Amino acid sequence: MKTVVKLPGQEIPESYFDVRYDILRKPLGSPKGSERLGGDDESIHCWAEVNGKIAAVGRAHLIPETGDGSAFDQKAQSACPPFEPLCDGFKGMEDDSGTEIPTTGIRPAIQVRAMGTLDEYQGQGLASKVLSALEAESIKLWDAKTGWLQARIVAIPFYEANGWCCFGAEYEVPNVGPHVSMWKNFENLKR
Ligand SMILES: CC(C)(COP(=O)(O)OP(=O)(O)OC[C@H]1O[C@@H](n2cnc3c(N)ncnc32)[C@H](O)[C@@H]1OP(=O)(O)O)[C@@H](O)C(=O)NCCC(=O)NCCS
Questions:
Q1: 163 domain residue, yes or no
Q2: Rounded to an integer, what is the distance from CA 30 to the centroid of its chain?
Q3: What is the pLDDT of residues 15-30, one digit of tens each?
Q4: 156 found inside a domain
Q5: Rounded to whole angstroms, how far apart are CA atoms 191 and 169?
Q6: Is residue 191 scored above 60 in pLDDT?
Q7: 191 located within any domain
Q8: If you average pLDDT over every residue of the chain, what do you get?
Q9: Which domain holds residue 158?
Q10: Ligand 1 center to residue 116 CA distance, Å?
């Protein structure tokens, strides 16, 4: 097994997007092409390969300095709501572990999207390797202080096992299903 990281602008093989489609879009009945996300060209991409075959994928992008993480995917016809702590006027809130999400010091902030492992490779630690690499590279490249993501309900235990925590109420992402927002403070990952 090896993990491969591609920095923004580096070439990404078609097979990476095929895996993303097979895991995340095909099961929803979405058409080919819907796996392409806005910002792919500016993102860090990582995958895990087993015997030369891409088995797990994920990406991270820098949330613009004044951005709140909300997005609309034309191809998937799906809207992601903002992350409350990144919105103007955020007054602070506790995450589900009782930790206070601070109002300052949380940027640069990155968002993790499109994480998935092919069915036959799940439970082997591959997505954890991809996620750790995305976190480490985001810290190196962008000096990221925190990470944010919108987790499908089934994926929450995976992210929790990797140090992420839920906050706020559950919501529906159209054409995808129920989600909960999660965050991670990268402060402890720095050496
Ligand atoms: C969520 C997903 C990416 C996890 O990939 P994976 O390669 O199987 O994850 P890992 O093997 O690295 O899991 C690491 C840890 O996460 C936890 N975990 C992962 N999947 C879990 C599940 N379904 N239920 C409970 N815990 C889970 C476990 O603690 C696991 O450690 P363990 O194997 O020692 O028990 C994968 O199940 C997947 O692709 N699901 C479908 C697509 C999806 O929902 N993507 C996320 C969109 S937000």
A1: yes
A2: 20
A3: 999 999 999 999 999 9
A4: yes
A5: 33
A6: no
A7: no
A8: 95
A9: 2-186
A10: 8
pLDDT band at 76, cuts 50/70/90? Answer: low
CATH at 84: 3.40.630.30
From ligand 1's centre to the CA of 88, what distance in Å? 33
35, 39, 44, 45: CA torsion to nearest 10: 10
Looking at residue 182, its pLDDT comes to 98
Instruction: Tell which one of 158, 173, 176, 184 to mutate to probe ligand 1, the residue whose CB is within 8 A of the most ligand atoms.
Output: 158
Q: What is the pTM of this model?
A: 0.96
| Confidence label for 190 from pLDDT (cuts 50, 70 and 90) | low
For the chain, what is the domain count?
A: 1
In a domain, 174, yes or no: yes
Angle at 164 between CA 57 and CA 2, to 5 degrees: 30
Helix (H, G, I), strand (E, B) or coil at 17: helix
Reference 31, options 80, 73, 59, 64; nearest CA is: 73
Which residue CA neighbors atom 3 of ligand 1 most closely? 116
Q: Is the peptide bond before 64 cis (omega within 30 degrees of 0)?
A: no
Q: Are 181 and 168 in contact (CB under 8 A)?
A: yes
